[in-house]
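Key result, reporting period 2: structure in, sequence out.
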């Protein structure tokens, strides 16, 4: 496993957080900065900020900071599913 993009609390995370003013790059909504900013762990699980590849790795996007933005875990997942979409039913 070479997943070296660390979880939030890195300096890089703070940079992105400031650049995006704490808002999700996909839906534009505000993201909780920590588990303690939301009432419940299940909310945190879906709304927590995650690193999103702007150009997905699957589409040939580079695995470097220029290709990363912050997005809700949920939005990130939804995007991934949409772009991986050929799983099972292909439209054309
Ligand atoms: Zn979002």
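The corresponding designed sequence is given below.
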């Amino acid at each position: 496993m070479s997943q070296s993009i660390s979880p939030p609390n890195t300096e890089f995370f703070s940079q992105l957080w400031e650049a995006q003013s704490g808002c999700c790059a996909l839906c534009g909504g505000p993201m909780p900065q920590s588990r303690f900013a939301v009432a419940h762990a299940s909310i945190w699980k879906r709304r927590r900020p995650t690193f999103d590849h702007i150009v997905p790795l699957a589409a040939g996007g580079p695995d470097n900071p220029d290709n990363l933005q912050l997005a809700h875990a949920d939005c990130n997942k939804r995007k991934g599913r949409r772009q991986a979409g050929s799983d099972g039913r292909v439209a054309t």
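DSSP finds three helices and two strands in the chain. The radius of gyration is 14 Å. This case is discussed further under Risks and Mitigation.
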